[in-house]
Amino acid sequence: MLRACSIASGSKGNCMYIGSQQANIIVDAGVNLLLIEKSLKLFGTNASKLDGVLISHVHSDHTCGVAALCKKYSVPVFCHQAIADFMSKHSDGQIVEFFDDSFYLKDLTITPFKVEHDVHCVGFAVISNTKQVSIATDMGQATQGAIDAMQGSDLCFVESNHDVQLVQQGSYPEFLKKRILSKKGHLSNNACGDLIQSLVNFGTKNFVLSHLSESNNYPELAFSSVVNKLQEKGIKEGQDVHLEVAMQNRLSSLYQL
């Protein structure tokens, strides 16, 4: 069995739990240690039993809790070589580097794949006993490589960061708007719908819309935008797919695959 739950997702911090029969990991640690500890207890485990924390990239909303976690529990950190120097300074000396190849943690096979962001960033495909969970956020576009890595997943956490019109009409400075909307920025609601449509064609039915912008999106808009995009292709939410929106301040459903 493979379990997965978003602990926190959004502009202010990101962290996700994945567990199997033998392993417990978190993906990113952009929240405070107390929240991680409380959440893991709800899943029937605790931080001392973590087999690793996977880091997608260096931005603080994905890394600010790493040092406290490593200092208290000596949890191994897994990151790409490109960010090894940064992580070695922010993880209390706990660092394990990896490149683009798959690696193993007990009964988990973990495959990092590159996503397009303004710093080096990866998504993850995690497999145990034929079940696969994939995570892809912080990307300006869904490349074919990312789609290939995620196809066939039983569950995907995919970015639905913003509504393009809200960004364009909002109060952000122009350089920040351009960054968000660029191919190395963040994925819009409509682009998320296109990505989900592609993955549905490979059999995925469960999706969690993730990393919503606090200023340029809201849960109801992200959900309805993706639903409408899928309906254009004849894909019905609740029938052909199940959608959930990950929130900043509460856990998602605990998926058991």
Can you offer a commentary on this structure?
The chain is α/β, with parallel strands linked by helices. The chain has one domain: Ribonuclease Z/Hydroxyacylglutathione hydrolase-like (Metallo-beta-lactamase, Chain A), CATH 3.60.15. It contains 9 helices and 14 strands. The chain has helices at residues 33-42, 60-63, 66-73, 84-89, 144-150, 164-169, 174-181, 189-200, 219-231, and strands at residues 3-8, 15-19, 24-29, 52-54, 77-80, 96-98, 103-105, 108-115, 121-128, 131-136, 155-159, 206-210, 242-245, 255-256. The chain has a 7-stranded mixed β-sheet. Strands 7-8-9-10-11-12-13 form a 7-stranded mixed β-sheet. The mean pLDDT is 95.
Extended strand count = 14
Beta-strand percent range: 25-35%
How much helicity do the residues have? 25-40%
Helix-strand category:
alpha/beta
Determine the CATH topology. Answer: Metallo-beta-lactamase, Chain A
Q: What is the CA-based Rg, rounded? A: 17 Å
Mean pLDDT: 95
- For the biggest β-sheet, the strand order reads 6-5-4-3-2-1-14
Summarize the main sheet: 7 strands, mixed
- The CATH superfamily is known as Ribonuclease Z/Hydroxyacylglutathione hydrolase-like
- The CATH level-2 architecture is identified as 4-Layer Sandwich
CATH class: Alpha Beta
Instruction: Describe the global form.
Output: globular
What count of helical segments does DSSP give?
A: 9
Cα-to-Cα separation, first versus last residue: 6 Å
- Give the helices and strands as they follow along the chain: EEEHEHHEHEEEEEHEHHHEHEE
Number of domains: 1
Low-confidence stretches: none
